[in-house]
Fold each of these.
Amino acid sequence: MAFPKNFIWGAATASYQIEGAWDEDGKTPSIWDVFSAQPGKTYNDETGQVACDHYHRWREDIALMKELELPAYRFSVAWPRVLPAGRGAVNEKGLDFYSRLVDGLLEAGIEPWLTLYHWDLPQCLQREGGWMNPAIVGAFEEYTAAVVKRLGDRVSRWMTFNEPQCFVGLGTVDGRQAPGYHLPQCDVAHEVHNVLVAHGRATDILRAAGGDRYSIGFVPTTQSMIPMTDDPRDIEAARRVFFNYTPIRPIHWTISLFTDPVFKGEYPADLLGVIGKDLPAGWERDMAGISRKIDFCGINLYSGRNIRAGDDGMPVQVPQVPGIPQTAIKWNVEQETLRWGPRFLSERYGVPIIVTENGMSSHDWVHLDGKVHDPARIDFLHRYLLGLDRAIADGADIQGYFHWSLMDNFEWSEAYKERFGLIHVDYATQKRTIKDSGYWFREVVRTNGANLG
Ligand code: FCB
């Protein structure tokens, strides 16, 4: 196996998906509290008001991480806990929770990896226009500064944004996620740009506080593009679909819309041709600030599409074979997903890549023997990690893998229908049960992947 000696193994969660305690200790509603409280927005009208009750059960959850021997844990902070008015007064009680959590992780020998924004915007800022309003950048700076001030002595791994493609696209274009809007492209372009500017400003704040001691990343997502064969023409065709504008997906799902500005300081020319006219006036002046040097590119990948080169070399999508394996959420199981996406990113940007999310949902339950048998997740993980190993063997600089998720949780508009965890959660009793896949992943961690064969 090619996993380097210091490869980082971990599992990931996000605040709204696990914490519950939605109105405790001074927290105000986030856009997800408001969205999920509206009838018809989530599966069975379920909300994250209680979720995994992690806000109260964090000690038990750290003990489970310890049992799984996880070296690293990726979580996010809820902005409305820290700054209940979105900006201004800091709520120390909200920060106390994360401070206790970080202490508990460090005591257990688990490295905290902190995401600043995993979608739970304070509703009061949404009311001002959310990411459309450039004033949000200043609010995000205040929020970042408050988190760093309190936790920055103990946390050194930071991620600014999780999946802008989703909170912009699913949230404000398709309306399937919070805040549930259908905005036109002229407004979406402003959101994209404001998120990027906020990323750059947060990076400056982090760097000023922690210098080289801090490792700072940005976490986009997309679908992997998988060449049908190892023929260089197919590889080039897949790379083109991965990075270039193509009518097969909306513009905000083109990963380079976010990653080229962050890692190269420019919007890609083909995308600029489509949205350039809609960007805020003077956007060019922001590019240097957006592209401050950061330490890694995170990537969340779950599935992929197969691509081949046509006779003219142009990409052609290979038709889907009927009945191909799918997870419960109906995402295709494509073994080479982690072989190609991370490699393409590594080649284009020359920064270390960390897989910050990957996993699958299935309909797990506690069996009569009291255990949770989830052989499909083990097989999925095994296949995907073999793909990742291949990318590393091929020369891509990939430095870590975080499984999504540590435990079953509130899967956004799919709510509790989908189970992504290495740990099963019975939401009626909040009882946790480590799944077979959790123990299997522990072996991967213990052997640094040598058990993958
Ligand atoms: C990603 C999200 C994460 C989780 C997984 C399944 O898009 O970042 O919160 O919902 O999908």
Amino acid sequence: MADREEGPTGEHCRACGALLSLVIVDLGASPLCESFLRPEDLDRVEPTYSLRPMVCETCFLVQLPAYVPPAEIFTEYAYFSSYSTSWLEHSRAFAERITAERDLGPGSLVVELGSNDGYLLRQFVALGIPVLGIEPAANVAEAATAAGVRTLVRFFDAALAEELRDQGMAADLIVANNTLAQIPGLNDAVAGLARLLAPDGRLSIEVPHLLRLLDEGQFDTIYHEHFSYFSLLALRWILERHGLVVEDVEELPTHGGSLRVIAGHAGAAMEGPRVAALLAAERERGLDTAAGYTGFAARVERIKDEVLEFLLAEKRAGRRVVGYGAPGKANTLLNYAGIRSDLLAYTVDRNPYKHGRFTPGTRIPILPPERLSEDRPDVIWILPWNLAPEISAQLAHRAPGSRLMVAIPRLTILDR
Ligand code: ZN
């Protein structure tokens, strides 16, 4: 059941300013999920922060307070988007489609917030369209620049939007894919988007869909780096506050179920039929009432219990379980369930940045995927469940005898 605090926590909603009091699930305390440890860090103190998402009962934005300043999280980021093949494909298809739809060309400007290693903007560069990436993590921005993507190493806010406007920039398309959630000053950032957008420009925003998070028990996508969790109701509310209208919405399969929202200035864009239909579906599900958020905590606990029972049973039977992938989100689950290397001997990841490091909090070693071919473990737990089809195909050759498992939305042994 959702928990109402005895008294107010003193935290206010970052979208509408109302006082927050409704906790949707208590995941205990966790370290920052992208703070993979080096061997020399293992004897040091690891800071942990409370992980208790709350829902605003006025605008229904689900959120975590910003315990940690973004500068501590995003200045060295371990996630290089280009390491995911299906993600690159998704980006290429998007760039080609929106270029045709919006008639973008050499005179246009495409801006991306949180442009990472330039995986998306590279597609526009290839189409001859001028771009500007805005990316606070210097290490990934460097990779973007090296690939020919003009990139500013800055946090996006209204002040930066103003600076860019002063330099004569107005964006025909601003892309914010999986970025709004990572900006604690949400109102200020959305004001900046409105400021930087050309009069007939469009915003394309992708966010994981809260409806799917709740209905499919995707609690591992809750971590400190994600400050906000959006329903269309909540996203539309904050955009409207800054004079922006949601023109269209699409449901995408990415990240376990995302929304792609297209918005423009009021007057240039009008709310389309798909927007009304999805808002109705969210209201039907109760996402505009406190009751819509109860029941989630029990579901989360059930998933944790199932995983622990499975891992303990495998251990007792003398079978070895290892992980595939070391995504940030796995660390929420591993920490919440208290899973350490006695239950999960190691995990492997394609990203060389993580090799030789350890998962934060639970200290599970991260090795290169080649290890699986030598080792032939009994069970491989695919931690990034959203990429399970792609990963099980890769594992067909590497680990043909291992059973493959995912924990979310429920513990499942995959058909090979
Ligand atoms: Zn609110």
Amino acid sequence: MKKLSDIGTIKEILSRHGFNFSKGLGQNFLINPSVCPKMAELSSAGEGVGVIEIGPGIGVLTQELCERADKVVAVEIDQRLIPVLEETLGDYDNIKVINEDVMKLDLNELIENEFKGMKVVVCANLPYYITSPVIMKLLEDKLPIESITVMVQKEAARRICAEVGSRESGAVTVAVNFYSKPEMLFSVSAGSFMPAPKVDSAVMKLNVYKEPLFELEDDKKFFTAVKAAFAQRRKTVLNSISSSLGLEKSAVNELLLDSGVNPQSRAEKLSMEDFAEISKRI
Ligand code: SAM
């Protein structure tokens, strides 16, 4: 089996398959041999565990996951990588590669069919053009998963792992914290990828709650409130919500006071409970 731990091997495989990187698909492949073992280890892939990987590329991380987990299902959109993966993962009998767009897959069905009796985790070096939509899909679909260990742009990881109510927080911080406890794991320099992206990356782990933080009548209203409050983050929460939802200021003012929120605050100062209270009245 070809271990993909050195750049020479990776370049040789890619050139033999005549592969050109697609910028549009966020193809920055890992070439730093120390990153994948560490990431796979921290993802909790192990005995009795099934792993969903999104975007295996040529299979660098996939190999490490196959070494540890009972089963790995890797979802890759780029059909040109399928023969490459057949070669690089040929020696493993615990891998299934699905040639699909992850955003179009029914992941609940996939878990039910592929991972009976196993704990399930997600581990991926995500394509950066869809980082937030993929993370929100994984969380909003309420999958029976334990954790999501993902490489994302460092800036995005900082935002997601920020404390709710701190300057660095944003709508995505609140949304992710509703479903999981985020944890920053380690940073990865831009030079660890081929081609090298413009910015550094980081690996974070979202420890998914069995139940979301609050019982809400309507999760959608919660996210509408969060997005509206952060839409114009330099403005007061009163102005941001009223202008982004097209509501009368006086009505929003009353709604905020009834929720126990100062209408003159900025969204980044609000707590999870504040957003829950606002969403009940919106
Ligand atoms: N895991 C590999 C690595 O670490 O070297 C590749 C990571 S690369 C950042 C992202 C991968 O996601 C690429 O292989 C790309 O083709 C794939 N991808 C992009 N969009 C996708 C989608 N919507 N569904 C599934 N895979 C996707």
Amino acid sequence: MSVIIAGTGSYLPEHVITNADFESFLDTSDEWIVGRTGMKERRYSDVEPTWKLGEHASRKALEAAGIDPMDLDMIICTTVTNDYAFPSCACMVQGALGAKNAFALDCVAACAGSVYGFDMARRYLQFDDVKTVLLVACESLSQVANFEDRNSCILFSDGAGAAVLRKGDGYYGASIHSDPDGAQHLYYKHPRRGTPFYPADAVFEGEPFIADPLGALVMNGKEVYKFATAAMPEAVEEACVRAGVAPDKLDMVLPHQANQRILETAAKRLGLPMEKICLTIERYGNNSSASVMICLDECVREGKIKTGDAICLVGFGAGLTYGAVTLEYKDS
Ligand code: COA
């Protein structure tokens, strides 16, 4: 059983942040950022909350699929930057859309989230009580970035992508993994408030990762880079084997946009020219789980993928999580 991608949508906030904007307060340069990452611009949502980005992208996906929010049975939202600890971001999007017939839940797998969510959707769609799923990835990484760390803050961005998914036929293969061994290389820790009976700043001795004093994300770029360059091709290869498609026969790869050099290294190992790797990194930077869904929407709308194409969605990130889904693209 595979999945039909009945409609896609994306939303990028209007506020453009250029490399020159970082030069104004950090010891960095456009040349360094472009050379090391491929990024020129990213988008910040400013006052718009994460769920609102998700609502915008979802409305476009619903319109493209030609369906009403009331037709949705399930909403899966992927985010690491939910505005609320509860309710879930999926419930917030559901409320904004008025999708009253759906049940809604979040899938938290960092930058691999939308790939995990895609495979989750397929599993729910195997049973007849779920016929139409909205998968929406929305992220506001600007809200957790460390603006005193030139190594990491230049990477992250805000945005959302969505797709309406239904049960379909055609080949399908997934490779979904998490490896806690490298989790210390990328994390964001919520502050504890303490209680009237215990202080907030008390540290649990077994706590593996120490919160950043600024309340921002913590990243060891070199280690994440090493992990990503190995994990991305490994996941694509495994998903391709399971789908029965040779990696070098893929028509388009829709990857998480972490670093252009990571994507170039992976493309080489997979025997794919860069034209087959969707790139939004120069314009949007790293949108965490939304990157893959934004790529999907852009490729569908620009006709870069068409019915019958072999496509591969692939993500990797904190956890450490990584995964890929290879399938035959169909929109009906
Ligand atoms: N501007 C200028 N110089 C910078 C800089 C910046 N924004 N950030 C780091 N540097 C400096 C470093 O301080 C270092 O200087 P030094 O040699 O004097 O110590 C030098 O550039 C090289 O740093 P290094 O860490 O070796 O660079 P790199 O080639 O590994 O690139 C990253 C850094 C962060 C771009 C790269 O490691 C990366 O992309 N990692 C993956 C991160 C990621 O994808 N995270 C999200 C995963 S979902």
